[in-house]
Design brief:
This protein has helices spanning about 1-25, 30-40, 45-55, 60-65. By secondary structure, the protein is an all-alpha fold. The longest helix is centred in the first third of the chain and has 24 residues, at about 1-25.
Length: about 70
């Protein structure tokens, strides 16, 4: 149904925005668990799965690839 399609698109958009914010936060000092909680994931496993699907790497690997070593 059309309403179902709208709901799916809204859900995907919100998930996309949450994961974009997670990627931004991972460049900072917060732990991966704290980032997951900050963007609204109650379960680390769900966050890891969604993040990995979106970016192709785990949150921890993403951080290592994007944050310069001092």
């Amino acid at each position: 149904s059309a309403a179902s399609d709208v709901y799916k698109r809204q859900h995907q958009y919100i998930l996309h925005m949450r994961l974009q914010e997670a990627a931004r936060l991972l460049r900072g000092e917060k732990s991966v668990a704290a980032v997951a909680e900050a963007v609204g994931f109650r379960d680390d496993k769900t966050f890891y799965r969604a993040f990995s699907r979106r970016f192709g790497v785990s949150p921890g690997r993403f951080r290592r690839l994007t944050v310069p070593v001092p």
